[in-house]
Specification:
It catalyses: 7-aminomethyl-7-carbaguanine + guanosine(34) in tRNA = 7-aminomethyl-7-carbaguanosine(34) in tRNA + guanine. By secondary structure, the chain is an alpha/beta fold. It has 15 helices and 16 strands. It is globular.
Length: about 375
């Protein structure tokens, strides 16, 4: 741990990068996966369990927390870390994506966005300055600029307009953030699926000399090959010595292929959301525990895992819980999935350190392709 935000790039293996972010609240080993704690909770999980899976950092959501319990209340209660009993780093997103995707009524202009709460219909205004203010009240360690995220496909002129707006908002966010020792603000590269716009966005953000850079707008319904091509175009423009965060991504396959291209940080609701719906991610690929084939299978999801949910509970029991709509089913599968994601990240980091990432990636994908155990 250090008093200041510091990123150290320890080793590269082809495009993959092994590093470490040091902050007052702890060290983040990269490549890192950040479980999503949208409203101050990683759904269906105790945060002690989240930590035990290997998570160094979690994500909180500005939009949801500003609506309830409100950022001001969180600040009065001592900040988000104290409120939720998580002593380690927290990254908060800016709220921009949720404003664009969840609010039924919104009006966007140069000053920011006025939107209607999906909770109670109340009107709110989010400017770049207000987004940074809220993240400061929450006490987050890594704060994201407010940006405009356009769902793909979209018209090129609309993508360019949103990208340019996001650049201007990044400058305002930097001013609003000011100097906060031990904390960081990241910019967000936008530009949709247009390489020239992505490159321009990355070049202009780099001039702001921020502590880190995210790639946004690539978890909005586009095919994987579009995402990977945009990373190929964008990442060479970003500073080598700064961390790179791919927002809202993704599946284990997305993560492996994005690490290969130079991404250091990820977040996604997929492991917990999938777990609540009966889908498990395993080293043998995806397993739908709702399927009848598991009804009398007393084998665990993964006998080699260190996670109790993966190793100690039978598929038959998990199948029963999920089919009976028991909350424990979603809890155990969320626990399993988060543990699998962190085991994958640990394997990635070890492989890069030993200079064998390409081999690790090939073997991991080969095991996924072989599929699950044969039915009993």
């Amino acid at each position: 741990m250090t008093e200041n935000f510091q990123f150290t790039l320890e080793k590269t293996d082809a495009g993959a990068r092994l590093g470490e972010i040091s902050m007052p609240r702890g060290t983040i080993r990269t490549p890192a996966f950040m479980p999503v704690g949208t409203v101050g909770t990683v759904k269906a999980m105790y945060l002690d369990q989240v930590r035990e899976t290997g998570a160094d950092i979690i994500l909180g959501n500005t939009y949801h927390l500003m609506l309830r319990p409100t950022a001001e209340r969180v600040a009065r209660l001592g900040g988000l870390h104290k409120l939720i009993r998580w002593e380690h780093p927290i990254l908060t997103d800016s709220g921009g994506f949720q404003v664009m995707s969840l609010s039924g009524l919104r009006k966007l202009d140069e000053q920011g966005v006025t939107f209607k709460s999906h909770v109670d219909g109340s009107l709110h205004h989010m400017s770049p300055e207000r987004s940074i203010e809220i993240q400061g009240l929450l006490g987050s360690d890594i704060q994201m600029q407010l940006d405009e995220c356009v769902a793909l496909p979209a018209e090129p002129k609309e993508i360019e307009r949103a990208m340019e707006m996001s650049l201007r908002w990044a400058e305002r966010c930097k001013v609003a953030f000011g100097e906060q020792p031990g904390k960081a603000m990241f910019g967000i590269v936008q530009g949709g699926d247009i390489p020239a716009l992505r490159i321009r966005s990355a070049e202009e953000l780099t001039k702001l000399d921020l502590k880190g850079y995210a790639v946004g707008g690539l978890a909005v319904g586009e095919p994987q090959d579009v995402m990977l091509n945009m990373l190929k175009e964008t990442l060479p423009v970003l500073p080598v010595e700064k961390p790179r965060y791919l927002m809202g991504v993704g599946t284990p396959d997305d993560i492996l292929k994005s690490v290969a291209r130079g991404i250091d940080m990820f977040d996604c609701v997929m492991p917990t959301r999938s777990g609540r719906h009966g889908l498990a991610f395993t080293r043998r690929g995806k397993v739908n525990i709702r399927n009848a084939r598991h009804a009398e299978d007393m084998r665990p999801l993964d006998e080699q895992s260190n996670c109790p949910a993966s190793r100690d509970y039978s598929r038959a029991y998990l199948h029963h819980l999920v089919r009976a709509n028991e909350a424990l089913g979603g809890m155990l599968l969320s626990w399993h999935n988060l543990a699998y994601y962190q085991e994958l990240m640990q394997g990635i980091r070890k492989a890069i350190a030993e200079g064998r990432f390409a081999d690790f990636m090939a073997k991991t994908m080969e095991e996924w392709a072989r599929g699950d155990l044969q039915p009993v």
